[in-house]
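Revision sheet: structure tokens.
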Amino acid sequence: MITALPRIAIAVENFDQAMSFFRDQLGLAVADISASSATELGAKIAVCVPEGGSNIEIMSPCDPEKPLSQSLSRFLDRRGEGLFALMLESPDPNTEADDLTKAGLKVMPLMPGAGGRDIHPNSTHGVLIRIYPENSFDRQEPRTKLDIGITGIISVGVAVENLDGATAIYSDQLGMRVLESRHDGQPGTTSRALQPLKGACVELFTLDGSMLGEGLNQNGEGMKRLTLSAPDLSACYRALIDRKVEARLENDRIVIGSPFLGGARLEIVSRKGF
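Predicted:
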């Protein structure tokens, strides 16, 4: 049983610059665990740890002999920097992997040194999903903080060709509950939000008429939007401008130009939940 969506991962080329962007410009608390992760996993990793929501992992390959580093390098070579993986949690990832295999999803062989199991993006509409044990990140890691009010991840937007087919994967197979379906404010564009018991939502988007359509045509299905939350949107916007962040107000949200998300959209809204 999938119980939570506690974090997402971003693959980057320049680890220090990416960590600085999320820490110094977006004001997120950051736990730098690269000293241990580089040795154990072959990748530099830092975890952005907002006070009230799901985490953002920054990953950069550093050891071509290690499987995680190889996976990150392949992603960067094919797609460039961007949203790399969706992390889910389960009481027993191996049992969950067996159940998903029986249901027809492509579960990848256990990666040496990995703490969880991977579902191939071909089975989940372009999204690499990693299933970890519950409470798999220790929030007590030392972290730096320059707070401007961002409290966590609200949702991860996934562009798909077949909304009903994708919904069946994320609800029937991964066990997420469907929260709502809605038109996304543009003709012919529909989205559907799903959520595990804890953590952020997955918001599935159709393509027709969507702002995400161009990106999908270029890169295929997959994660195209990351939505964060902040209770005081005006104060957050002023703080971002003060920090020289490329940001603009667009209706009820802040849209941020991020050099580390490729073609994906980074935005901030004021609501606490979907």
